[in-house]
Amino acid sequence: MKTILTFLFLFAGISFTSAQTKDAPMGGNDSPVSATTKPATLGGEAVVQFAEVMPEFPGGPEALMSFLHKNLKYPEMARENGVTGSVYASFIVSKEGKISDIKIVKGLGAGCNEEVLRVLKFMPDWKPGMMAGKPVAVQFNLPVKFKLADDEPVKKEEIKK
User: Which of 34, 84, 92, 124 is surrounded by the fewest CB atoms within 10 Å?
Assistant: First the structure.
C-alpha cells in the first residue's frame, strides 16, 4: 500500500493566520508587532518578507514540487500512528540565493519536522529575490503537507471510535 506525500507551498507574502491574534497590534504588513520586534537581518543586511521579484527555486514551482516529492520520505513513526497534516517551515533566501536560518514555524511531530528540516538543508541554491533590480535577502515560508493514501490500513483504535 503506497503512501502519498502531498506538498503544498505558499510564498513568503502569505501570512499564517494562526500566528495572529485579534488583540495584537498590527504592523504595516498586517503582522503582529510589539516593542521587542526587530527586523530580521542576515550578515548585517535587512531581510524582507516581500520583494518585487520573489526568490525562485531553480526551474520554478514545479521543480520545487518535484524536488520535495523525490526527496521527502514519510516518517515511519508518522505512518504507523496515522499522523497527517502540515509542517510549516521558514527560511531565508540570501542575496546569493543560499538557504539559511531554516526553522519549523509549526510542526507535526512523529518525525515529520525532522524530515522537512533534513530535505530543506540540502536544497540547491535559489534564484534570489530582487528589489529595484538588486538582489535582496527574503524570508520564505513553505508548508509541507503529509497525507496518507486512502488505501492505507485503518488503525484498530480508530475503528473503536
Answer: 34
Do the domain assignments include residue 111?
yes
107-159 per-position pLDDT tens digit = 988 999 999 999 999 999 999 999 999 999 999 999 999 998 865 554 544 43
Quote the domain boundaries for residue 134.
Answer: 48-149
Calpha distance 72→74 (Å, rounded): 7
Which candidate, 123, 121, 55, places its Cα nearest to that of 94?
55
Q: Is 145 a member of any domain? A: yes
Q: Name the domain count of the chain.
A: 1
> CB neighbours of 71 closer than 8 A, spacing ≥ 6?
119, 122
CA distance 120 to 67: 10
Give the Cα separation of 142 and 101 in Å (integer): 13
CATH number at residue 98: 3.30.2420.10
